[in-house]
Amino acid sequence: MEFVHVFVLTSLALDRSGDVKSKNVAVTFDLFEAEEHRSKGVEYDYNTFVVPCDWRENAAQSELISAMREFRTMVKEMQDAALRTG
Description:
Layout: E1 3-14, E2 20-28, H1 31-38, E3 44-52, H2 55-58, H3 63-85
Antiparallel strand pairs: 1-2, 1-3
C-alpha cells in the first residue's frame, strides 16, 4: 500500500478567553510549502500525518454520497453502452 505525507499548517491565535490556541489554517502535500509556512515566524508551524493513498475508499460516507456515486457509475455504464451500440 502506498502512503502520502499530509502537512496541516497551524498558527497560534488568541481565543475569546485570551488563551493561546493552535489553529489549523491550511493543508498541503508539499513539504517545501510547509517549511515556508513555518519560516514566517515563531507562531507558525505544521503537523505531519501519513495517510494511505486510497483514504477516500476507506473514509466514512453518508448515504447520499454513496447513492450519488452509484448513480454516477450507472450513468457512465449507460453512456459507454450507448457509444458501443451507436
